[in-house]
Amino acid sequence: MMGNLAADHGLADLARECGISVGHFSRAFKQSAGMPPHQWLLERRVAQARHLLATSPSPIAEIAQQCGFADQSHLTRVFERITGTTPGRWRRQLPGVVPENEQPPVG
User: Rg of the Cα trace of the chain?
Assistant: First the structure.
């Protein structure tokens, strides 16, 4: 069920899959993973966004959608809270990335 990070994974659905209550699922998850399910999912989505920012020329808004964020603004808020920088700044700091307003040399 967790293979698609863009899908909406409700706690009730996950708990039902495990055959336990939502409260028990949340406590067991936090004890096992060290963080609540929602925070774990956000961190996985940011990790996926970092991967796509580094390997894909897709616009940030498209990456946000692919990773399950409501929009680019939502990705930016969560990304900055977790990494300390925005997706755009993070992408520009990657080696070999040409800023959007510059063209790579021809030749």
Answer: 17
